[in-house]
Amino acid sequence: MTGHGDVARRPDGRTFVSVDAWSAAAFERLVRAVPAALPKPLYAVVDEDDTEQLTRWQRAGFAVHRREWVYSVPTAAPDTDVPLPDGVSLIGVGGAEEEPLRALDRVVRAEVEAGPGWWTMPAEVLPLPPGVTVVDPAKYAVAVRDGAYVGMLRLAPVTRRPRIGLLAVRESARRQGIGRALLARVLADLYRSGVRAASAEVHGDNAAALALFDGIGAQRSDANLELVLR
């Protein structure tokens, strides 16, 4: 075998394809054969610095759809001691209750869909049953106001560098510092556990999220390009 192609349907409904081949000729054949058998649109992800692979995908008809910045996030940034808004409390990773967490997830997704669209949020490639978006509640930290969950942060416990997979706040609770406070709490907890850096991916057009991570001293270490074939 000189190569293979894979197909994954993400929780947001989009279909992503990937190709792994030992030679340029095998890659070219697969990058045309795999999409030809699938309904459009199709998506793929390429490292922005890998110009050779990007050119191959583009020759197959894929176009750049968006950029996602990859951040290295220090857990001991000097300005992560953020005060909480009045009436808001935080529950660290692993302490969230399942039902209110799932309720918040549904509200946030509906708000995102009504606005920029869920495709603008980072999505993990996971085989999930229809309607299931919260796989493991133990990976979440949450913000609580008046007994209701208003913000959440998902942390994938990767051994060397945990990944911040999602940071979201209800529309009615935004621009109050809740997201920043949640992020600060999780980073502080990681630091106390001996972790010195986490990672995160941020949509290149999400000005608020970019400002948040840039503001706490996170460094842009890489960029991924999301491609689309329509």
Q: Could you please describe the fold and organization of this structure?
A:
- The chain is an alpha+beta fold.
- The chain is 27% helix and 33% strand.
- The chain contains 5 helices and 10 strands, in the order ββαβαββαβββαβαβ.
- It has helices spanning 24-36, 51-59, 98-114, 178-192, 207-215; strands at residues 3-9, 15-21, 42-47, 63-74, 88-91, 140-145, 148-156, 163-169, 197-203, 219-229.
- The protein has an 8-stranded mixed β-sheet, sandwiched between helices. The chain has a two-stranded antiparallel ribbon with strand order 1-2.
- α4 (178-192) links the parallel β8 and β9 (197-203).
Give a topology summary.
Elements: E1 3-9, E2 15-21, H1 24-36, E3 42-47, H2 51-59, E4 63-74, E5 88-91, H3 98-114, E6 140-145, E7 148-156, E8 163-169, H4 178-192, E9 197-203, H5 207-215, E10 219-229
Parallel strand pairs: 8-9
Antiparallel strand pairs: 1-2, 3-10, 4-9, 4-10, 5-6, 6-7, 7-8
Summarize the structure.
The protein is built from 5 helices and 10 strands.
